[in-house]
Amino acid sequence: MTILVIAEHTNAALAAATLNTVAAAQKIGGDIHVLVAGANAGAAADAAAKIAGVAKVLLADNAAYANQLPENVAPLVAELGKGYSHILAAATSNGKNILPRVAAALDVDQISEIIAVESADTFKRPIYAGNAIATVQSSAAIKVITVRSTGFDAAAAEGGSAAVEAVSGPADAGKSAFVGEELAKSDRPELTAAKIVVSGGRGMGNGDNFKHLYALADKLGAAVGASRAAVDAGFVPNDMQVGQTGKIVAPQLYIAVGISGAIQHLAGMKDSKVIVAINKDEEAPIFQVADYGLVADLFEAVPELEKSV
Ligand SMILES: Cc1cc2nc3c(=O)[nH]c(=O)nc-3n(C[C@H](O)[C@H](O)[C@H](O)COP(=O)(O)OP(=O)(O)OC[C@H]3O[C@@H](n4cnc5c(N)ncnc54)[C@H](O)[C@@H]3O)c2cc1C
């Protein structure tokens, strides 16, 4: 049994989610190979080679893979993947863009967003916005799987010494072109990787009031998230959205401020280790999942909390 893990990376460095995906592969068992498809991606391949438990790194270095456009990377993965028992990628926007195409090309079902490995062919995944957990057994010859990174503790980034092997694959499919990207710049940790997340909801009232959360987050070294209502109201950009249709987070500490606790929001944060809720409505459903609840006006409670940190 040999497992192919598709690395998530920036060419220069690996994204943290790759380590969680390798951890899922370790639970399946067997040899683990990591594919780094990029351009001038030697540094990312070297980082992948150092991950504990990785047997081999395949480096597909080609200008066509520079921005990991799924139209170009999926045919490469489908080609290489024919020799593997499992193909895994993180359930990030990138992984979710590539793997369904791979599954279709290999004519197998995809198993999406696993949170646990029961055996080499049986996995657990959330359904109904996380309200039920399905156990899925697959008889597919090649199991194509996306991994929810919050379900697996990261594999050790150091300790391995895998060989890096150059591979080639289909060239530019010519179906899409990378035009540009605008990356949000922030000194705060990335939302899905942060150990502490402070999130604001509609109760914040407007975008300017998020300054209270930024001040608290900066003292705590936290990332700042938001409910969909806060995003839809234009308080903050949508890359801050936590929930079913936003980002899935599972930090050590999640502080929900002025968030009612709709199931679609809970789907994105209820696996957090400790949940603190600040809400002026003592009936708010968020208190049902909170480890610590504060019934208070956020405009008094948050500045007070910030001062005391
Ligand atoms: C298909 C679908 C997908 C969805 N995906 C997501 C998703 O990914 N993420 C998400 O978050 N939602 C999602 N939603 C929306 C979700 O159903 C809720 O509408 C949303 O989460 C509500 O956001 P909220 O808690 O900020 O707002 P509200 O429900 O309006 O709650 C605001 C809370 O703030 C409190 N409050 C107000 N003022 C103060 C104050 N001064 N001090 C303290 N507390 C105060 C109120 O008591 C209230 O509990 C989705 C919905 C659908 C249908």
From TrEMBL:
Tell me which InterPro entries the record gives. Answer: DHS-like_NAD/FAD-binding_dom, ETF_a/b_N, ETF_a/FixB, ETF_alpha_N, ETF_asu_C, ETF_asu_C_CS, Rossmann-like_a/b/a_fold
UniProt keyword annotation of Flavoprotein present: yes
In the UniProt record, does the keyword Cell membrane occur? no
Q: How is the cofactor bound?
A: Binds 1 FAD per dimer.
Q: Per the entry, which co-factors are needed?
A: FAD
Q: Which parts of the sequence bind FAD?
A: 202, 227-228, 241-245, 258-265, 279
Q: Which SMART domains match?
A: ETF
Domain (Electron transfer flavoprotein alpha/beta-subunit N-terminal): give its ranges.
Answer: 3-182
SUPFAM superfamilies, alphabetically?
Answer: Adenine nucleotide alpha hydrolases-like, DHS-like NAD/FAD-binding domain
- Function field: The electron transfer flavoprotein serves as a specific electron acceptor for other dehydrogenases. It transfers the electrons to the main respiratory chain via ETF-ubiquinone oxidoreductase (ETF dehydrogenase).
Q: What is the name of this protein? A: Electron transfer flavoprotein subunit alpha
